[in-house]
Amino acid sequence: MKLIIATIKPFKLEEVREALTAIGVRGMMVTEIKGFGSQSGHTEIYRGAEYAVNFVPKIKLEIVVAETMADQVVETIAKTAQTGKIGDGKIFVLGVEHAVRVRTGETNADAL
């Protein structure tokens, strides 16, 4: 099993969710986060005053899938979330040792 952690722009969430559902992803966790990467924040003007925005809003997706599906999920997220502009996000893939569905006690692949 693989854990895929992706950070994307907030307005891309619904489009990414629909694309992942279409390829068979059955669940994901979504968290609103703030962060910065190579853009290191930016400045904005509000009511005539300029101020620095050091962290930009992002969405973090956490998805656990069978190892055989991981590459397809990564490709789908990358293709769907891409705008071509700075700050499109990152995707990380990690191994998962064990999973348990709390309600039924099912484990590993059955728990997904």
Task: Characterise the protein shown here.
Pfam families: P-II. This protein is of the alpha+beta class. The protein has a single domain (2-32, 58-111), classed as Alpha-Beta Plaits, CATH 3.30.70. The protein contains 2 helices and 6 strands, in the order βαββββαβ. The strands form 2 sheets. A 4-stranded antiparallel β-sheet has the order 2-5-1-6, covered by helices on one side. The protein has a two-stranded antiparallel ribbon with strand order 3-4. It is elongated. The mean pLDDT is 90.
What is the topology?
Blueprint: E1 2-8, H1 13-22, E2 29-35, E3 42-46, E4 49-53, E5 56-65, H2 70-81, E6 90-95
Antiparallel strand pairs: 1-5, 1-6, 2-5, 3-4
Helix pairs in contact: 1-2
Rg from Cα: 17 Å
CATH class descriptor name = Alpha Beta
Low-confidence stretches: none
Domain unit count: 1
Largest sheet: 4 strands, antiparallel
**Strand-residue proportion:** 35-45%
Mean pLDDT comes to 90
Write the CATH fold name. Alpha-Beta Plaits
The neighbouring-strand order within the major sheet is 2-5-1-6
Helix content: 10-25%
Question: What is the SS-derived class?
Answer: alpha+beta
GO cellular component, one term: cytosol
Organism: Roseivivax isoporae LMG 25204
GO molecular function: ATP binding; enzyme regulator activity
Modified residues (O-UMP-tyrosine): 51
